[in-house]
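As a warm-up, study this chain.
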Amino acid sequence: MTRPDTRNTNAVNRSPRPSLPPHAMSARKAWVAAAHAREAMQSRIVSAFGRDIAGAGPGPTDFDLQMFARLAVAERRLKRGVGRAKVLWPCVGTPAPFNRATLPDQGERP
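Now compare it with the structure written out below.
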């Protein structure tokens, strides 16, 4: 079953904006999950350093630090994947929008 193209409304100006396609949303969700996992490991490392400084326990283990590094690398790769996810607009066959940067300034001759 295909999902119809739904539109979200912006609460500020109530203008409709197209939703992201499913592949872009799944890439974004994976990136957000990786960021949460990295933040949880970061919190665990910070609390271990705090216990070590207070003399209440050992610092973070080598495994904790290696896992943090792996999670950070995975998060970065997923973020790049989100950027590469193609957003297909409804009017794919229409020409590109007008680009003022390619035009000469007023008063100049091409």
